[in-house]
Amino acid sequence: MPNFAFKARNRQGETLVGERMADSRQALALALRREQIFLLEAQEKKVVKKSFEFGGNPTPKDVAVFTRQFSVMIDAGVPLVQCIELLASTQANKKFAVALKAVQTEVESGNSLAASMKTHPKIFDDLYVNMVQAGETGGVLNAILNRIALFIEKANKLKKKVKGAMIYPCTIIFVAIVVVAILLIFVIPVFAELYGSMGKALPAPTQITINISNWFRANILYMVFGLAGIIVGIRSYYQTDNGQMNIDRLLLRLPVVGDLLRKVAVARFSQNMAILLSSGVPILDGLAITARTAGNRVIEKAIMDSRVSISQGRTVAEPLRESKIFPPMVCQMVAVGENTGGLDNMLRKVAELYEDEVDDAVANLTALMEPMIMVVLGVILGGLVISMYLPIFQLGSVVS
């Protein structure tokens, strides 16, 4: 949103000079006219972009700590601009500090806190901005900020659980691939050369392993480029609407992993909607925001269908049930919450329930994958080693 430096006159004939953000010059004039101020001149201020900045974007933990400190300072009666200034000066993350300084400048120019934060979407997402706007409108900004901090901490904890469950198996698989590649490229050819000098027929497993090694060494570059091409192709396909929908649908249908992704999505949806509704955000806006943060196009579509359903006078639960993505128990609890007028409380209970479900699913996934990985790796690595030592074993039996 552009920032305008303007000159205007009020009803008393006094000349006013200031800065304000607006979509256009006409929008600025209209906004000032509502305050009985008449625009005389307006000049859009050009934003000077820095070519390079040290440091990356702030982490969710940084944003959560800032939000909680912000809430405490407002609750203590510290003026809004002073709060932002103090918090900006204490930020270790340079990009975060610069963004907060920009927010401070915009608030001093007369913009709302929510509108000022909206200009930094990489730090303050739609959910954050809409909740701040609801807090400003209702005069309960300190309470809303405290809820946001709690929500960010919970969402970050949920994300870490899922990532933590995947780190161990992914690391083991990566190490196994590296070890197998080293054996095929460097170790097995040494054995092949040794056995070749003996001039005798090799056992079938040994010959097969040597053939695989020869093929792997001859085609390794093609395999690397082919794998890179497949990854690029999948990523390009995922950028399209149909591709994203099809891949996300496939992920939800995967055994074990699909169940975990579905439970994470239900927990995230319930958390987001509960905190938005309890903060005073209208349900249609809440569903639109929640859909954008779903992380899965199939689930996003189900939530947007619920939004359309409400606008047509139906319920939220009906399209969720029809999507067959959300479990029947969740749909039933949402329906009960709608009928009793306590949808936010019911969604909060669903979120708590599914956070526990995610914990169980992560534990089950880890417990299932560990033995499977060990068995597969044992068969592959053990098979390679044994096949290469078979001729030596046979030689030993002949000598004995």
Would you give an account of this structure?
- The chain is mainly alpha-helical and 400 residues long.
- Helices cover 75% and strands 6% of the residues.
- The protein contains 15 helices and 3 strands.
- The chain has helices spanning 25-34, 60-75, 80-89, 94-108, 113-118, 126-138, 141-196, 204-239, 241-253, 257-278, 283-292, 297-311, 317-323, 328-340, 343-399, and strands at residues 3-10, 15-21, 37-45.
- Strands 2-1-3 form a 3-stranded antiparallel beta sheet, with helices on one face.
- Strand 1 (3-10) and strand 2 form a beta hairpin.
- Helix 13 packs antiparallel against helix 14 and helix 14 packs antiparallel against helix 15 (343-399).
- The longest helix is centred in the C-terminal third of the chain and has 57 residues, at 343-399.
- It starts with a strand and ends with a helix.
